[in-house]
Design a protein that fits this description.
Layout: H1 3-15, H2 20-28, H3 32-50, E1 54-63, H4 89-101, E2 106-111, H5 119-132, E3 137-141, H6 147-156, E4 160-162, H7 170-176, H8 183-196, E5 199-202, E6 205-206, H9 213-226, E7 230-231, E8 234-235, H10 252-265, H11 276-280, H12 284-290, E9 295-299, H13 318-323, H14 326-335, E10 340-341
Parallel strand pairs: 1-2, 1-9, 1-10, 2-3, 3-4, 4-5, 5-7, 6-8
């Protein structure tokens, strides 16, 4: 390993940030020794922050309808080959009830930009969950909304809001999205959430078309500035019937490497091991945890919706769910030496 790169890694651990050119060096000239050196640092920081605990979060995909037309997403509006579905309120509550009975205390309610779910209805869902289970944390991921809507959902019980920005560079964003979508608006939403009081979550894809190392460095700088409590990153996976269906998939090893960098930049953040990693590498989840990730999702979405949901490309990690139950997942994590976190609120992890 180059001594200069080692010095940059040490400086990042101490300061929590680097200059853009230094991030570029760490990414461009990485080798196996540097990867292991940074992953060791990331694991140590995670242990110091959270005693090595891993959060198992219950994931509920409410809907795969979306008003947007992102070029990389299989759920995009113009993909007419997707069988669409929406879950009704009671189905959503039943999913959370099953998860709670199995010991889960953190839930992610996720969907596309589906206007079917009104401000009032989502607030009712949140209130009912919190009334039934006062010890749970709820993360919402339902796209761009007005400040008024975000505030109403926060007051109804949402603890965290996940809004992935996709890419922090406007010129790149415009190559991945139609002209009616705005990166500036998405970033504005993230800052509004912070002002309201949310634990803020965001994220980006690794290996999307036109992405450069320079842009990955910009991602790290943006995340340091935003200082979110949750960062969800994963590899790009080409989706059928989209403009990018024939593009090359992202790199799982680079994704894990960036997780290590993010652990040094945001020591106390929740960093999930993305399900998309297991679509590219059977050991993807294990490698992500070894790189500093501290959360995994267990999909609570009903079986009859399994083949209908597509987010970044296709339903990723579903084959993994078919082979395991929640008890088996937890047992495997414990056998590997991880303590299981029952719930997550960011202030408890500091």
């Amino acid at each position: 390993m180059n001594d200069g790169l080692r010095e940059l890694a040490d400086r990042l651990e101490i300061r929590g940030t680097l200059e853009k050119e230094e991030y570029i060096e760490l990414i461009q000239f990485r080798d196996s020794q540097l990867v292991e050196y940074l992953s060791q640092k990331a694991r140590r920081i995670r242990r110091n922050q959270h005693t090595g605990a891993v959060l198992v979060q219950g994931l509920v995909h409410l809907s795969n309808y979306c008003r947007n037309d992102c070029y990389y997403c299989g759920m995009r509006r113009e993909n007419r080959f997707v069988r669409r579905y929406r879950m009704e309120q009671q189905e959503i509550l039943d999913c959370c009830a099953r998860g709670y009975e199995k010991g889960l205390r953190s839930f992610l309610l996720q969907g596309g930009e589906d206007l079917y779910y009104t401000e009032k209805e989502v607030a009712q869902i949140l209130e009912k969950i919190k009334k039934a289970y006062s010890d749970v944390s709820i993360t919402l991921s339902l796209g761009e909304k007005s400040r008024q809507v975000y505030k109403a959902w926060y007051e109804a019980g949402a603890d965290c809001y996940l809004l992935r920005h996709g890419t922090a560079v406007d010129s790149h964003y415009k190559k991945l999205h139609p002209g009616n979508m705005s990166l500036l608006r998405k970033k504005q939403c993230l800052w509004e959430m912070k002002e309201i009081g949310y634990q803020v979550g965001t994220g980006f894809l690794i290996g999307t078309p036109y992405q450069t190392i320079d842009q990955l460095a910009e991602e790290l700088l943006f995340l340091k500035q935003l200082d979110p409590q949750l960062v969800s990153i994963g590899p790009f996976i080409p989706a059928a019937n989209t403009p990018f269906e024939k593009q090359r998939a992202g790199n799982s090893d680079l994704t894990c490497y960036l997780l290590s960098l993010l652990r040094l930049i945001l020591p106390s953040a929740l960093l999930p091991a993305a399900g998309a990693l297991t679509a590219l590498d059977r050991e993807g989840r294990r490698k992500a945890l070894e790189s500093g990730a501290n959360a995994v999702a267990f999909d609570l979405t009903p079986d009859n919706y399994q083949d209908n949901g597509v987010l970044n490309g296709r339903r990723t990690g579903r084959h993994q769910r078919d082979r395991e139950n929640l008890e088996g997942l937890i047992q495997r994590l414990e056998d590997t030496g991880y303590e299981i976190a029952a719930s997550w609120r960011h202030e408890e992890w500091r």
